[in-house]
Inverse folding.
């Protein structure tokens, strides 16, 4: 796996790739630069363009691509700019390079498409797409070649999309390690409202309650609240654009969520009222059912057993833990780390297939590891 600047992968030699020729990436922020790193690691010629000269120079310095030349003839153009200028840039690129296939990676698909259609732009070689990947921190300095690996990449084709054009966009996604999903723009925007945009708002609203909270309360924060509010560190400027461009689907989900919150609040106003406790229990149970529907490892709705290991806060302990799990022939399906402030140890919550948990727990205990808890009966 490459380092953030992609140098280690290039040192090992180009990887097999479906993408060839010159790829022009417009926008050298997190997604644009990350695409550049991943393609450069595969020996693809990447041209970077950005409205900000300093951002562009930084991305080039980090190895995400090269500066454009007057004789460049890209076969594929990836527009990776903020949603409020996506339609403008897509139109400019289609007109400047009529023989190239243009895709964009904006997190909203319908509004840019409607804008382009209203303008009468020839969309023959345009295919909207969206990788469900990102980080809390943006910019070229945070870019990584591996952020797309295993992540969904939505492609919004239409009846006029040629097989050749589609293969270029799908080949890009596959080269970057993503999993292809085909949706209409309408389906995409409704889906991301539920799975991405509203979760951002919920995390931000909850974290906003911390601003005036007593310091004593904040010291009680554990991994649960950190997981719930992790994405609250996202950039406000970008999210104003995303939420504004996808307002209607987001509002529909928010209205449903507000009704659910009202029902729970009413039940808790007087827990002794007949049916109140059942209403709360049904809310938690429905959440259990929803979580179980989320795809797990390798896209499977599969449940794992978990155990928690106490790890001393010294160097090399996590590496030793993984090494000894390997000796026990136990594959780690998922991992969560928690380190309480001021504590001399951390907690590693490890998920394994049910058949392996007894072997893992017994084997680690025999090797001197402290098991804090387990879901195994």
């Amino acid at each position: 796996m490459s380092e953030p600047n992609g140098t280690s992968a290039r040192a090992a030699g180009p990887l097999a790739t479906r993408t060839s020729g010159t790829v022009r990436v417009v926008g050298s922020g997190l997604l644009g630069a990350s695409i550049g790193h991943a393609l450069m690691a595969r020996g693809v010629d990447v041209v970077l363009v950005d409205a900000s000269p300093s951002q562009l120079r930084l991305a080039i310095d980090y190895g995400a691509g090269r500066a454009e030349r007057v004789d460049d003839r890209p076969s594929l153009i990836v527009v990776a700019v903020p949603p409020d200028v996506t339609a403008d840039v897509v139109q400019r690129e289609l007109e400047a390079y009529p023989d190239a296939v243009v895709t964009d990676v904006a997190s909203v698909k319908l509004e840019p498409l409607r804008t382009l259609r209203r303008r009468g732009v020839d969309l023959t070689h345009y295919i909207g797409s969206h990788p469900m990947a990102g980080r809390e921190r943006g910019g070229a300095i945070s870019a990584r070649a591996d952020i797309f690996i295993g992540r969904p990449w939505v492609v919004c084709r239409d009846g006029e999309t040629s097989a050749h054009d589609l293969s270029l966009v799908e080949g890009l996604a596959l080269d970057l390690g993503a999993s292809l999903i085909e949706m209409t723009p309408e389906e995409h925007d409704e889906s991301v409202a539920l799975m991405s945009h509203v979760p951002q708002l919920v995390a931000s609203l909850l974290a906003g309650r911390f601003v005036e909270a007593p310091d004593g309360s904040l010291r009680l924060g554990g991994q649960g609240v950190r997981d719930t509010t992790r994405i609250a560190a996202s950039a406000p400027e970008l999210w104003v654009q995303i939420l504004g461009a996808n307002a209607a689907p987001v509002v529909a989900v928010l209205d449903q969520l507000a009704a659910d919150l009202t029902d729970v609040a009413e039940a808790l106003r007087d827990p002794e009222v007949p049916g109140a406790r059942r209403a709360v229990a049904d809310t938690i149970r429905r959440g259990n059912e929803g979580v179980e529907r989320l795809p797990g490892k390798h896209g499977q709705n599969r449940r794992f057993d978990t155990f928690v290991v106490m790890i001393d806060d010294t160097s090399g302990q996590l590496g030793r833990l993984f090494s000894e799990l390997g000796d026990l022939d136990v594959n780690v399906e998922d991992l969560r780390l928690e380190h309480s402030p001021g504590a001399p140890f951390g907690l590693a919550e490890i998920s394994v297939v049910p058949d392996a948990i007894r072997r893992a727990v017994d084997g680690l205990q025999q090797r001197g590891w402290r098991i804090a808890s387990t879901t195994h009966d």
